[in-house]
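Pasting as-is:
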Amino acid sequence: MLKVNYFLESINTICQHLRYDELSVLNPLEFMTQICPKCSYIRKESETCPAWQCPACQVAYTKAGDSTPTNTQRDLVNKSSQHAVNSIPASTWKLLILFAIIAAIAWQSGFAFRKKTNHRIVNNSTQSLQQPEVILYGTTWCGYCAAARQFFDANGIRYTEYDTEKTTQGYEGHKKLGGGGVPLIVVGGDVMHGYSEAGLRQALAPWIRGN
């Protein structure tokens, strides 16, 4: 968006620097006032007679008859307009073409940026819906460990279990997290000592089956 605004400001600056006479000659109505409706004489800038009077036939433009231009006058206007277009310097055309290309590139860049941003938002939303890692440190004889397993299975929660008595990883992980008994449950970055169904429901609410 900033690139497009910059382009528009640049075009405005170019237009302000264009010579007035290069643009004013493009106006056929202004050119029409210099053609006599009676004799079709084209008034020159060097003429010294009053602006309202034709230098050739000396008749006032407003009294020369019908204000509707003749075919000859139309041809003169068309030729003048075409000449005015052709008289614009080549450097001006090149500058305008250059800025048109810059505008197209800026638009494409803005579109690609918006597409990339939207894709990032979708990915972030998808990641935020992914269940956090759940680790259960327990033993085979612990009743609360069995209750935790049953809760995870019943509610569709994925988890990893380490036996603190039979595996080195379970023993070391349990000890590193403070030990103090089983079960010890890790949900994402949160550590829960003991089993609490209410605590697990709160921590895993978005991923519990049926919620």
